[in-house]
Structure to design on (1344 residues):
């Protein structure tokens, strides 16, 4: 079968095609025919060889994808042939809290990912895709969606009427916006582009802040909420931004610090004490969170935002497009 | 000023009018000009002298109302003259969990209620009414709304995609339906009337069960959810119904047993063990829960369902109408 | 190897010895040389063929045991040869909440248990035994200990200073007493025997109630706590007892309804509403809870109470002794 | 009556005596004859005029004290004449979460404190003192004790067997050690003094680290816990120390960032993401937390550590002694 691999070079050029023997069934695993996969910012970091200490050489990239179960191994009962499925990014994080060791089965990083015709996955890592989603839409869910869900509903304990702040319009932020609206929250979105803010508004955003025109966006958040601030913040930018986020936080706010971010500038965290803010580290989430998110996506018939679809053979072009940062929503690969 | 009082007789005939000196400002209290009030089932029980050991004689009835602040006492900072407000039913339950002693300041039961031209209320029990609500709509919120909110969001820890079951179409159930939909849940409603089910559908109900036609409604709940059951149940009927509710419950479901209900028939509770269900007693809620609910009502622009409005002088007619149980939504009194 | 099996008869006579091929290593599993096993009340129910719909014929009994890892299969990393281990009763309940399907891997019921010379166990179900425990002590932990832990610390969210009520001096109650004392709680114990109460006192019990002499023990609980009641109750008796337990409960108490109990008499549950009590079903717990309990047992150097040790060949005598209900603490089988 | 006040100068010299009219009863308040009071580090900061933007001039200092109720105002039911009481530091934080506005009734800062013969306190802020505590011991509890309790049991959700890390041997740390041991935790203490570590050991500390001899104390924490780290950390030093604390944290650890600390050096917080650590700001706690802590202190008969007792007239000497930082435990003032 045809796969993409990450080669030894630094950058997008390191992507190369290869031919591999298709995976065979094994106990507890399912074989999936991949229909679509999707890109995340960390895929760029992996080709750049700048994702922590990861050594992705020879690895099939992409943590996100969707496909059809075409074979199951011994003992598999939760999925059957013909099911449309996605996999949780950390294949062994099924339920309960984040524990040591789960990094070792991270699709597209420490185990082969979705840029392939077939993939073998532990059945326990799989969830069924709601019927209203296309393959392309389903492929976008696993990392950015679950990251936003975890921050909002597990760390954040969101309830209708809460005020949620998302920074920018990347994948996690847009899922954050959609999932927060699905749960009845009021959502504030920041962006440097009025055009992107208009798109966020069309998805339900209540308060829009152009941080280029309003660099003190944290004050604008307070102003727009009558001095109250944001109950939940998806801090996807980094520790420099965190200083402002904590100023924009409500008393007892929950702020999710979301993985792979810029930590070059240490934050001022005193407002965290004064307001009893909770700051929690987020590394995507568990298969149970994926299930819960899919139930919400199904109940509210949420449609993930797909910016652009590339052909399987054009994977490097998709990476280049992601790097240009002009997208709004997810960049998807169609496998056939 | 003119007030209604509960007299010594048993039943609706015990309601009588009286003239009282209007309340004066006192430290920590606000004086409210009442614009509308609303009825709950327990108001019937109080006139029937069948609400636990309550002795409501000479009491101004009604726990629910809305009005305008016309004076404030010393030390009041959370409301000001002109504010449109509602009060939490237990005037001293501000925040935190239910503790002993709070029953002693229960509007319309252990302290005078809203069937009056003016009311004096501890300012700490007051919340401001969202701008999109009329006086009649605002008057309906305090008991039925907060009861539903507490069950869904405090006991129930609801998140988008959860399945919520409400029994019948009384005040708590309809608020339960609306607040659950606002939070992105899938809602199941039971009723003996197809007409009422149609109204519930118009409010967003996803699954409708006529329990007259389908007496084994608990099996229908399981069937309609693919065997999964309901994550959160508002058990407003009584302990007889609880046996079926527990059969309809999902694993780890949260079931709120809601006050003043029929306890004549002890339930079979073994399914609670087998599914690790949580059964929690609910007695309305705190002022903080009222605030949170109002934030949700504001964010989602929820309109409470008003069935019928009566004039202040026609209060006994409103009670009689409530007793007939033909309503869908709340019965409201207009005070001017 | 030599094993005990449950035969077709009804009662303890159904226990029979058999010879089986020792288990071989398989992926994800460990082979354990069993050093000790322990009995629980449900083992009697299983031989009586009265444990729900269980069909235990040909099953190796006993959910509790301890032993040494003598071989590991492919992919096992959490235990190694030589480790002293116990297994979680539900072999697939690793973490997170109770979900459907976990009953299907219940040691001694739906899969073979510990009354054998060797056992093969999914490595994920195993935890390491603290060094201060003998094999006999370690063997007692898995079901009764985790049941008490789950009720106290997961459902009960116990903190130092809470008041805990345990009913009688069975295995769960004694673990409840020891683990509650380890966490700084004040513990109330009921029993029909002053001798057993004296033993409970020696383990740290603060308040002792002989329910034969004081049949209204629920009033005694209130009296002994200045009218406050118990914050956490381990309801191990059944639904008849539950009526009294709910009267003995504090406001917002957490009451664990613990599996396999007498449900012949439906309870009066109205006090649950009036006090906002939480009643939760408990079916032992997860491997994570077992780990957490073992950390507590290690930190506080808790010694489980072993009442009597029988030889492997005398298993039926151990059952008969358990049935006599004269024990205090656990009944253990020594395997060599 | 005689009181101490904070005058306009900078430093301990600003303390001056004054004579004031004793407080009179008012609705909802109790008059307390003060028997003992106690110092906290922030009392030094207040005289230094370096406690945030506080303007403590003319204020009676000290947030901590204990005394006897000698009169009660109208409507007071929770305490009666003769009761031995302490007050919660934030007089209006009764229950529920930290909300805006509570800073405005902070004993010894924004309202008069305990360095007086009599004090008038909102009855709702008062808790009764366990019988085994002397006046001197009771006086130490309100700020340092509740701060430690909140971090351990509210933010920290501590259970027996958890590993708790306290930094140094100041008031919060020593209460943290004692309350953590009461709840069955394993406790790690750091100090620059072997003598103080020996005292901590006598109070139950399990692991002792001299950070002068072992500057990489965070590595020592990991080593001493087999690589696991600390479940709960009381970060009382400041943001510079936080970098090390986060390295010493276990996966999903809860780290309390405790008020008034050194924020001169921004922390490196990336380990918070990688381990999904929860960092929460702590500003003492509510009266409900004070009640809960007192129940634990009563159940476990904990004795707060009193380092030295000064006479009321020697208050400035007590401040000077506190500044010398040679104490272990609390510095107390005896009022008669």
């Amino acid at each position: 079968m045809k796969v993409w691999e990450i080669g030894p070079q630094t950058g997008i050029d390191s992507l190369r095609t290869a031919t591999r023997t298709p995976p065979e069934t094994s106990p507890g695993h399912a074989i999936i025919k991949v229909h679509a996969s999707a890109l995340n910012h960390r895929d760029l970091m992996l080709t750049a060889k700048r994702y922590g200490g990861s050594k992705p050489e020879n690895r099939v990239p992409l943590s996100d994808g969707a496909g059809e179960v075409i074979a199951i191994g011994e003992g598999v009962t939760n999925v059957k042939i013909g099911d449309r499925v996605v996999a949780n990014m950390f294949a062994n994080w099924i339920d309960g809290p984040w524990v040591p060791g789960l990094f070792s089965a991270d699709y597209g990083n420490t185990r082969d990912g979705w840029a392939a015709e077939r993939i073998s996955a532990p059945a326990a890592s799989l969830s069924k895709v709601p019927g209203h989603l296309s393959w392309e839409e389903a492929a976008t869910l696993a990392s950015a969606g679950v990251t936003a869900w975890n921050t909002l509903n597990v760390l954040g304990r969101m309830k209708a009427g809460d005020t949620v702040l998302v920074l920018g319009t990347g994948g996690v932020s847009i899922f954050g916006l959609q999932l927060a609206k699905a749960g009845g929250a009021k959502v504030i979105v920041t962006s440097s582009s009025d055009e992107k803010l208009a798109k966020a508004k069309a998805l339900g955003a209540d308060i829009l802040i152009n941080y280029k025109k309003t660099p003190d966006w944290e004050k604008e958040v307070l102003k727009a909420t009558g001095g109250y601030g944001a109950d939940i913040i998806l801090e996807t930018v980094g520790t420099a931004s965190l200083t402002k986020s904590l100023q924009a936080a409500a008393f007892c706010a929950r702020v999710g610090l979301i993985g792979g971010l810029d930590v070059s500038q240490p934050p001022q965290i005193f407002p965290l004490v004064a307001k009893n803010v909770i700051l929690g580290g987020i590394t995507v989430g568990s298969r149970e969170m994926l299930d819960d998110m899919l139930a919400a996506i199904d109940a509210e018939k949420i449609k993930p935002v797909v910016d652009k679809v590339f052909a399987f053979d054009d994977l490097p072009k998709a990476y280049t497009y992601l790097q240009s940062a002009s997208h709004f929503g997810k960049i998807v690969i169609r496998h056939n």
Chain C has a mean pLDDT of 96.
